[in-house]
Design goal:
This protein has 110 residues and is of the alpha+beta class. 31% of the residues lie in helices and 24% in strands. The model has no long low-confidence stretch (mean pLDDT 83).
Length: 110
């Protein structure tokens, strides 16, 4: 039905108003309030297993080398989240046979 139609000018005006409202909210909010809306980088990885690497293993895997981890020998093969020292997310890895782990997707941290 044509009663549900909106002219382009009206649509543009609605978008502009909404953008302005969001902009005003951001400007009025304190830094802490805005930080409350930011999730940690690893928030979407809650479903995958987690492997924590020491500095030496972190360096090796970031250089593209597969590594062998004792703790990975008992894990099922598949995707894992890799974390380095200081709980820093390295990226997504894959557990292979016999405890071998390789990096599949690196997450930039700088």
């Amino acid at each position: 039905e044509s009663g549900d139609m909106v002219e382009l000018a009206q649509l543009e005006q609605l978008v502009e108003q909404r953008v302005q409202q969001c902009s005003d909210t951001l400007e009025d909010g304190s830094s802490q309030t805005l930080l409350d809306y930011i999730l940690p980088v690893d928030a979407g990885l809650t479903g995958s297993s987690r492997l924590e690497l020491d500095a030496l293993h972190t360096k090796s895997i970031c250089m593209g080398q597969a590594i062998t981890l004792e703790q990975a020998q008992t894990m099922a093969t598949g995707q894992v989240s890799l974390f380095g020292p200081d709980n820093q997310l390295i990226g997504l890895g894959e557990v292979l046979a016999n405890g071998r782990v390789r990096l599949r997707r690196r997450v930039r941290s700088d």
